[in-house]
């Protein structure tokens, strides 16, 4: 009897193994045209393109010299800082962290630079320890000038609810230097209010 049970058990195990093997070799059901189109769209949305690879220039450690024009009638203020940028999510974004001083106070900020495949546009974000909001601007790259230009709007702290148009320019000078420029438009007149000169460390 025991021998018969052992044989029956072996046969059952063999049949179970065969059934599992058959399940593994079965091909998944074919997807329809709509599912394929969706899969292709998501693939295009997430692929790393030449625009993302261009942003790899900013990866590294940088010494930063900031100049601000708070009052057109007064001389500009300058301060020193340092930034560290790294590629994240397989090169899809460049994440930057900055430490320095601003208006005599300790200043820390963090931002992201990237290219949105769906919009076909570059973007950058910023947040820091001197505000509770987040900055977002959209822009493009000019190969002839080797520069990026962004446009956005910031909230006016002196006039709650009012927006100030802002234009940003990032100029690549050479492999070890680039310049960030910030322009604000007030009362219909644009003026540069900040410039940061970066030197690779």
Can you tell me about this structure?
- This protein has 201 residues and is an alpha+beta fold.
- The protein has two domains: 2-46, no CATH class; 51-200, Calycin beta-barrel core domain (Lipocalin).
- It is built from three helices and ten strands.
- Strands 1-2-3-4-5-6-7-8-9-10 form a ten-stranded antiparallel beta barrel.
- Strand 6 and strand 7 form a beta hairpin.
- The termini are far apart.
- Mean pLDDT is 89; it is low at 1-17.
Please bin the fraction of helical residues. Answer: 10-25%
Class of the largest domain, according to the CATH hierarchy? Mainly Beta
Q: Tell me the count of domains.
A: 2
Report the portion of residues in β strands.
over 45%
* Count of extended strands: 10
Say what the CATH topology of the largest domain is.
Answer: Lipocalin
Mean pLDDT reading: 89
The H-and-E topology, N to C, reads as HHHEEEEEEEEEE
- The number of helical elements comes to 3
Query: Structural class, from helix and strand content?
Result: alpha+beta
CATH homology group of the largest domain: Calycin beta-barrel core domain
- Unreliable stretches (pLDDT < 50, length at least 5) are 1-17
Evaluate the radius of gyration.
28 Å
- Quaternary form: single chain
Largest sheet: 10 strands, antiparallel, barrel
CATH architecture of the largest domain: Beta Barrel
Span between N and C termini? Answer: 82 Å
Indicate the overall shape.
elongated
Which strand order does the major sheet show? Answer: 1-2-3-4-5-6-7-8-9-10
């Amino acid at each position: 009897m025991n021998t018969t049970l052992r044989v029956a058990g072996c046969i059952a195990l063999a049949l179970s193994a065969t059934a599992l093997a058959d399940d593994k070799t079965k091909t998944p059901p074919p997807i329809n045209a709509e599912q394929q189109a969706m899969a292709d769209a998501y693939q295009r949305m997430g692929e790393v393109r030449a625009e993302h690879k261009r942003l790899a220039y900013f990866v590294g450690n940088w010494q930063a010299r900031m100049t601000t024009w708070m009052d057109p009638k007064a001389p500009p203020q300058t301060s020193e800082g340092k930034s560290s940028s790294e590629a994240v999510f397989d090169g899809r974004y460049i994440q930057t962290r900055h430490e320095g001083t601003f208006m005599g106070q300790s200043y820390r900020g963090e931002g992201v630079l990237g290219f949105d495949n769906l919009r076909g546009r570059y973007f950058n974000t910023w947040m820091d320890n001197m505000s509770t909001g987040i900055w977002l601007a959209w822009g493009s790259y000019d190969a002839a000038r080797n520069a990026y230009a962004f446009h956005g709007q910031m909230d006016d702290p002196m006039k709650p609810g009012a927006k100030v148009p802002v234009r940003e320019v990032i100029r690549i000078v050479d492999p070890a230097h680039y310049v960030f420029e910030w322009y604000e438009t007030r009362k219909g007149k644009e003026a540069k209010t900040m410039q940061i000169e970066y030197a690779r460390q």
